[in-house]
Amino acid sequence: MAAEQDPEERAVVRPLLTDLYQATMALGYWRAGRARDPAEFELFFRCCPFGGAFALAAGLHDCVRFLRTFRLRDADVQFLASVLPPDTDPAFFEHLRALDCSGVTVRALPEGSLVFPGVPLLQVSGPLLVVQLLETPLLCLVGYASLISTNAARLRLIAGPEKRLLEMGLRRAQGPDAGLTASTYSYLGGFDGSSNMLAGQLRGVPVVGTLAHSFVTSFSGTEVPPDPMLAPAAGQGPRVDLAASVEVWLERVCTYMGLGVQDPHPGERAAFVAYALAFPRAFQGLLDTYSVRRSGLPNFLAVALALGELGYHAVGVRLDSGDLLRQAQEIRGLFRTTAAQFQVPWLESVPIAVSNNIDEGELARLVQEGSEVNVIGIGASVVTCPRQPSLGCVYKLVSVRGQPRMKLTEDPEKQTLPGSKAAFRLLGSDGSPLLDVLQLAEEPPPQAGQELRVWPRGAREPCIVTPAHLCEPLPPLAEARALAQLSLSRLSPVHRRLEQPELYQVALSEKLQALVERLRARGPQ
């Protein structure tokens, strides 16, 4: 029997997930005898997403996996032969069959790093034909991952550190690959977990989930559990008929709430009992299938209190409709008074989870002072990035055979910076980022405490800066997540704020600025 394929391999991007013009350029390079010319490309973006002043670098893990497995299979080459001119030299296709990325070097920002416009997320060097073929897949892998991570980081900044944020957007994602990417990189950006089991299996993202309304509505109340007996949590003592205990508690709860025992929906109660029997240590009630106050709450309390007699504590309730903030406050109030009435103090702090099309505005409302919401599930607003669907990354040639290359265009914003470069982040005395400096790779690195003459992007005059510190040379998913949160905590509040932030400065060294001006003056050659 053949060995089972590594599940991660199924997530690898294939070489032909690219644009046709990459293949036509490859043929052009090969015919010109330039396929093996050493070249370097940089992958970066021009504007921060969502009107903010920062982004998070992400997708490196996927890029490395793609590069390690990059090979054109026979079927790939046969397809290329069908779309390229029929008189293409067969030797070109033999060249393609032999390609891999063993001669490619990638320098990258660590996953979770803060990144700003114009600063390369990836610097890719190697044979010209190969590194050209890598353009589209790398843009695809880095752009969406970084966008998702940044979007998640914004939502985390709004929520603050105490609220639990759960990504629940797989069913809203633009396809299964986007769903896996969103679940992975929303976790990197600061979410606490995901409903996506594949992200848990492949990427180690904590997975979470309970039950849907369909589970509740599937019960009518006439069902009899095949085994309603439940042993105490401590393992000592006789088993108890949970369904019967729930009916006893229902009468007490309804009397306390001023309801008739006929008011709570029997099917909902049967669903809660069935779930509690399956998950006595993780019972959570979905309250809004019928009526929160007249059905969901009394049914939940009856089951939770019956479980409590056996030493089990319910782990939460969830709301998925209505005014979530107001309902959470009312539920917390009832939990507190019920806890006092029945002398069960653990009930006071049962977490309240909410979901239902939550965007940045609604999230800000749900986390305001005095909110009783503890857990927030977000779907479409994190995985589809509705405020900005693309980061707009680009992949530009900066050198060939050691000679700088620069794109000159009528649009100054689309001009590129020539030459192989190094990036340094200068820090102020408080450890917060001051500015990023791009310089030619051959220049000596800046030193802490020494004056540095730099040219901020778009400025007409240079300025002098004196960094107090330098970041270490740009260095498992959980570590990237921790780096992202640490990086954001160190970013100045004027750059971290989500609306109308001050733009973070990226500057050029004098030598790089001089090269730019020299190539501009020379014009197209």
The termini sit apart by 61 Å
In CATH, what is the class of the largest domain? Alpha Beta
SS element count, helices:
18
Taking the sheet with the most strands, its summary is: 6 strands, parallel
Q: Report the CATH topology name of the largest domain.
A: nicotinate phosphoribosyltransferase
User: Looking at the structure, what is the overall shape?
Assistant: elongated
Spans of at least 5 consecutive residues whose pLDDT stays below 50 are none
Q: Tell me how many strands there are.
A: 21
β-sheet strand percentage: 15-25%
Q: What is the name of the CATH architecture of the largest domain? A: Alpha-Beta Barrel
Describe it.
With 525 residues, this protein is an alpha/beta fold. The chain folds into two domains: 20-153 and 388-522, nicotinate phosphoribosyltransferase (Alpha-Beta Barrel); 209-378, TIM Barrel (Alpha-Beta Barrel). 39% of the residues lie in helices and 16% in strands. The strands form five sheets. It has a six-stranded parallel beta sheet. A six-stranded mixed beta sheet has the order 19-18-21-17-16-20. Strand 11, helix 13 (324-342) and strand 12 (352-354) form a beta-alpha-beta unit. Helix 2 packs antiparallel against helix 6, helix 6 (135-159) packs across helix 7 and helix 11 (266-278) runs parallel beside helix 12 (292-309). It starts with 19 loop residues before the first helix and ends with a helix.
Write the SSE topology.
Blueprint: H1 20-31, E1 38-44, E2 55-56, H2 60-68, H3 74-83, H4 90-97, E3 105-108, E4 114-115, E5 122-127, H5 128-133, H6 135-159, E6 164-167, H7 176-188, E7 193-194, H8 197-203, H9 213-217, E8 229-230, E9 240-241, H10 242-257, H11 266-278, E10 284-286, H12 292-309, E11 316-319, H13 324-342, E12 352-354, H14 360-366, E13 375-378, H15 380-383, E14 394-400, E15 403-404, E16 421-427, E17 433-440, E18 452-456, E19 463-465, E20 469-470, H16 477-490, H17 493-496, E21 506-509, H18 510-522
Parallel strand pairs: 6-7, 6-13, 10-11, 11-12, 12-13, 17-21
Antiparallel strand pairs: 1-5, 1-14, 2-4, 3-5, 8-9, 14-15, 16-17, 16-20, 18-19, 18-21
Helix pairs in contact: 2-6, 6-7, 6-14, 10-12, 11-12
Domain Nicotinate phosphoribosyltransferase C-terminal: 421-515
InterPro entries: Aldolase_TIM, NAPRTase_C, NAPRTase_N, Nic_PRibTrfase-Fam, Nic_PRibTrfase_pncB, Nicotinate_pribotase-like_C
EC number: 6.3.4.21
